[in-house]
Amino acid sequence: MRVVGLDLSGSINRGSGLCLLDGPNVKTYTVHYDEEILEKVISFNARIVAIDAPLSLPRGRRSLEDRSGPHLRECDKELLRRKIRFFPLTLGPMRKLTERGIRLKNAFKERGFEVFEVYPGGAQDIWKIPRKNENLEKLRKSLESIGLKGDFEKMGHDELDAVTAALVGLLYLIGEYDEYGDRGEGTIIMPKSGSLEFLKRYFRIQFPDKGPLL
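The chain above was modelled as a monomer; its predicted structure follows.
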């Protein structure tokens, strides 16, 4: 049940958060280059990669430079309907992030990985825990309280979002997720309402010597 979470940045000059979730054990890294990300993930021997970045374009949009094309995908519209805040993929720096995300998605798929888009900020909203820009320390403690084991005190905001991405990937593996959008266009995998408590029970049952006390 190994899962990789990647909080991707739009530039190699700014580190990306990378997380390997192996049972309750969490290991995080800060990575920069695409080749570094690929090599690290391949070394993890995991088949699932959950990426925090747009991984598709809106239907009808030929490219990110196509100013006349639509700005939102169906999955983005679903975020709006649920009042989950996000930046449209055609907005300024998001274009570089989207280009990089699509490029890495294709590279992972060519190597046999299952890759999908996640949104840690939205997942944290659903779980009713703070986003990284609201209360970093409370976010850190909220994730650790699920029953995870790792060096949380040393994790920065990108790494904590990578942990969140990996947890959503785990929920995908065990079937406790919602899928926003149209698969023909591109979807976002999101946690179900109540899935934070589900994860706490899951870790307590699967790893009773390491799970949280409830």
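The first helix runs from residue 34 to 44.
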